[in-house]
Amino acid sequence: MENILIVDDEKNYPRIIGEILQEEGYTSLTASSGMEALDILNNELIDLVLTDVKMPGMSGIQLLEKIKEINLDIPVIIMTAYGSVEKAVGAMHKGAYTFILKPFENQTLIAHIAKAISVYRIVQENSILRDAISSRYSFNNIIGKSKPMQEIYEIIKKVAPSNASALIEGESGTGKELVAKSIHYNSLRKNKSLVVVNCSAFVETLLESELFGHEKGAFTGAGTMKKGRFEISDKGTLFLDEIGELPISLQVKLLRVLQEKTIERVGGTRSIPVDFRLIAATNKNLEDEIKKGRFREDLYYRLNVVKVVIPPLRERSEDIPLLINHFINKYTSGEHSVSNVSEIDPEAVKILCDYQWQGNVRELENTIERSVILGSGNIITPSDLPLQIRQNMSPTLDLDGIPEGVGLAETLAAVEKRMIQRAMKLSGNVQTKAAQLLGIGKSGLNQKLKKFNIDN
Asked: Which terminus of the chain has a smaller tally of CB atoms within 10 A, N or C?
C-alpha cells in the first residue's frame, strides 16, 4: 500500500483528499507546512508528495527543491489555483511530476497519482537492477589471483572513476567485455547506458548508420529517423569491441567525434553534441596494424590513454582452479539447474590446468558447462571432459621410469621433441603459434623441427 503525503495549510483540503485516497487503497499522511512535511519525509517511507504552491513560510516550490535533495526520484504533484499556473509550470522544470488546478475532479487527481506512482515503481526497479548489475560487474568478480590479474584489478580501480578512454587488448575469449563492463559499472556514469558495438559485425555502410544514426530518407529504406549509438550512449559509455576491424574511413570520422564531441547523422547537416566515455577492445596488435597502414596512429593514441592487457589463460594457469569452481557454481546453482555436480576430481583439475586453452576463459567455461550437463555423478571426473582435452593434456614426466644408462642429453632431447610435437598439434601446425606456446622464436622452432625431423 503506497503512502502519499498531502501538504496544504488549508484544514479541509488534506482531510477531503485523504478520504478520496483511502477509497482508492492509498494511505495518506498530512502536513500543514513545508517544515512539517520535511520532518515526515525524514522519518517515513513516502511514495508521492501532493503539495499546494502557496503556503506560509516555505512555499510548495521551495518544498519541491528540498524534496529533490532528499530523494531525486520521488514524484511531487503541485496543486495550484489558476493565478499560479506560471509558478506551477516553473516547478515542472525543477522536477515536479505534474501540476493540477484547484478545484479538480476526483478522478483526475487519482489518474495523476496512479500514473506517477507507476513511474516511480519502474524507476525504483531500474535502480535495483542497476545495483545488481553493478555488483555483478564489480572488479572483485573478475576471477584470478595471478600477478597479471592483480595488476588488472589495480588499473580498473584507478581508471574507472576517471573519464579517460581505455583500450583493452587480449585474445578472443579472455574477458575483454567483462573488463569494459567493470570499468563502466564502477564509474561515475554507471547509472547511464553502456552501449556495446561489435565493429566486426557490420559492413561499413551499416556500421556508419549504426554509430551515427540517420535522418529520414537518408538512403533507400530509411523510412524514419534513427538515433545512432553515439547519441544513445550520451552521458554513458560506448564500448567498441574489435576496434581493429573498424574501416579506415570510419576511423577518421570516429577521431573527429572524439575531438569535436559532436556528430552529424547520415543524411543530416545538424551538429548534435554528444558526451560519452569511450572504451575500445581488440584482439589485434594495433601497433602492427599501424605499420601495415590498416589503423590510424592518431586514433590509436586517442584510444590508448589507459591500456589494459589481458593475458591468455595459458599464461596464468594458477587461476584455472578458481575459474573451474566459479563455473561449477554458476551452472549448478539456481532453480533451473538439473545437475547434481558439486565438485571436480583433482585429476580432472590437473588435466584442465595442463591444457593449452586457445579459446581462453570462454573455452574453459564451455567445457565446464558441458561436463556439468553430461556428467553422470556428483563429481566431474576426467572421463567427463571432452576427448580432445584429454588427448592434448601435457604428458606427465615419469623420472623413475627412465631406464638406467640413459644419459641426461638423450632424456632432455626426447622431452624437447615430445613438447615440440605437442605444440605443433595444438597450433594446427601453424609455426608462429607453436613457437608462442613453447616460448621460443620462430627461427628457433624451425631449427628444432629440422633437428628432430618433425614434419610440418
From this structure: N
